[in-house]
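User: Can you predict the 3D structure of TolA protein? Sequence below.
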Amino acid sequence: MKKIALALLMTLASLPLWAQSNAAAGNANLEAERTRLSAERDAIEARFLQERTACYKKFAVEDCLRESRGRRRTELDSIKRQETAINDIQRQRAGAAEQQKLDQKAATQRPADTQEKRDQSAKDQKDREQRAADHAASRASTAAEAAERQKQFDDKQKAHADAQAKAAQRRAEAPAEAERFAEKQRKAEEHRASRERQNANRTKPRGAPLPPAAPASAPAR
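Assistant: Sure. Here are the predicted structure tokens for TolA protein:
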């Protein structure tokens, strides 16, 4: 209600002094004010037409018309401000009356709080806080489980990536490894063949001895 009263006082500043006093006292006849402003507007328009006719008879026609239009615009703006103020007062009065009705209705219907209701209200508040705490704990647990699942997934992905890398390395090294194995086999085969030749030479039977040399003949006499 205080805010509405303050708004009414601010709106009154747009009205003439005699209308401000009546409105402040709550006695302003808003319809009469609208009638007065309408009559003033008609008078301004009629005077403007007369001035325009007179301007065309003067030497400085444009200057005369400009001044006449300026006066007309200023006076019409003043009327518009007053009409706006009247409309605001009417709306604020209606709003204040409606708010007063609502306040009176609420005052008559509002039961006095009993101790039982206060206890129930406190219990309801505690229940709401407990539900909020449970909900927060559930969210935290869900987040922890999600983090653990993500960690397990990341570990599996890393293990798979490591296995793939090792397999790729083995495939890259396979030709060289095969070549080394073949070279090793070749050398082993050569060594075996060499040993077999040596063994064969050791077991080969020796040939018959040469006949003894003939004795030397005596010199002739």
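Confidence is low (pLDDT under 50) at residues 1-14. The two ends are 182 Å apart (CA to CA).
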